[in-house]
Amino acid sequence: MIPLRLWIRMICTLLILSLISGCWSSREIEDLSLYVGLGIDVGQETKFEKTIAAQGGGYPKEENVTATVQIAPGKSSSQQSEQGGSPSSGKSSYSNEQLTGDSLLQIFRQFALRRDRPLIGHHLKVIVISKDIAKKYGLQQLLDFVLRDNDIRPNCLVLISHHRALDVLTSRDPSRIPAFYLTGITNNSYISNKIMEPVSLAKLDAEMQSGSSFLLQNVLNADGEDKFSGGSIFKAKTTKFIGELSQTDLEALSWIKPKERGGVIKTYSKEGFTVLYEIKKKTTKIIPKVVRGDISFHVKAESEGWLMEDWRAPEKEEKGAYLKELEKDFAKIVDQQIDQMLYKLQHTYKADVAGFRDSIRIHYPKTWKKVKDNWDEVFATVPITYEIKTSIINPGSSTE
């Protein structure tokens, strides 16, 4: 007869083995194609697609959209070139593959006909949409499949390319994966107010569902190098691209948005020398006011920063009246930038991407109910005043 103690040991052993046996439905990562970047361009068939179609390998579709998937790890340059990708010298850390059609879902399923490993979007880092296709179709249309797909994480970054999304997702450095590089640039927003706070897929969906106009970060490309520059404006009702803000406009917008720090202000002394102020801390308050149905806003923004560069002759002291004069000069520069930016938003594009709508919605909910359906048109006529204060709390280190 087997002792009770031995029975207990056998049962415990079986239970432990069942826990460490692994997941029955698991798939090895080597057997998957993880795409980390997605580019959406105006439809333009690749040479590979045209050759296949000529052999009878096509299917009924319109050439509306070209989707680029960036897969990591990549292939050799010859393999990429054969399959309609973007070749680079030698072995690449990624591969770009393209297909054209009128449905993103159908395009993704077509990849199964040319790859031995299925596409998996669990690790998608960035979606790049070209400005040209964003003029033709609203983002609500272009991203409908992406927003419904449970495979794609809602925290992936959304960017707008000035030209083709494929160019932004292509690097001359084979060791660099553009999707990771682009997400890394957003981490620099704490030192530059020319970089917007990252807009994720989830945040973009919330903006579109709320019926508000919104802004997305622009990315430019030249000679295989990417650069963030300005932002693209999308209209509330259509979710289509309607215009752009420059780098300087984004600097001005940061004084209205609740961004705590980051950025520099440049002015010139009376002698014509360059002087730079770096923002270390900033507070912004938007004060809405409604009088007999008339809406107005007043923006109060204060910053503390360091005098980080002064090209004047070194024997001149940097204190007292001179610093006070510089503070006024820096505030004046910001005033000019804000004035230029607000003119574009209110008169050129008639789109509130600065967040004034949230202020009136919170403080005057009854008024908001009356104007929310045509807020952009109301915003275009609303008086906006602003008060900027800059304080130099540290003149910087001295070499004397």
UniProtKB/TrEMBL annotation:
<dbReference type="Pfam" id="PF05504">
    <property type="entry name" value="Spore_GerAC"/>
</dbReference>
<dbReference type="GO" id="GO:0009847">
    <property type="term" value="P:spore germination"/>
</dbReference>
<keyword id="KW-0564">Palmitate</keyword>
<keyword id="KW-0732">Signal</keyword>
<comment type="similarity">
    <text>Belongs to the GerABKC lipoprotein family.</text>
</comment>
<dbReference type="InterPro" id="IPR046953">
    <property type="entry name" value="Spore_GerAC-like_C"/>
</dbReference>
<keyword id="KW-0309">Germination</keyword>
<dbReference type="GO" id="GO:0016020">
    <property type="term" value="C:membrane"/>
</dbReference>
<dbReference type="InterPro" id="IPR038501">
    <property type="entry name" value="Spore_GerAC_C_sf"/>
</dbReference>
<keyword id="KW-0472">Membrane</keyword>
<feature type="domain" description="Spore germination GerAC-like C-terminal">
    <location>
        <begin position="229"/>
        <end position="396"/>
    </location>
</feature>
<dbReference type="InterPro" id="IPR008844">
    <property type="entry name" value="Spore_GerAC-like"/>
</dbReference>
<feature type="domain" description="Spore germination protein N-terminal">
    <location>
        <begin position="26"/>
        <end position="215"/>
    </location>
</feature>
<feature type="region of interest" description="Disordered">
    <location>
        <begin position="73"/>
        <end position="97"/>
    </location>
</feature>
<keyword id="KW-0449">Lipoprotein</keyword>
<feature type="compositionally biased region" description="Low complexity">
    <location>
        <begin position="73"/>
        <end position="95"/>
    </location>
</feature>
<dbReference type="InterPro" id="IPR057336">
    <property type="entry name" value="GerAC_N"/>
</dbReference>
<dbReference type="Pfam" id="PF25198">
    <property type="entry name" value="Spore_GerAC_N"/>
</dbReference>
<protein>
    <submittedName>
        <fullName>Spore germination protein</fullName>
    </submittedName>
</protein>
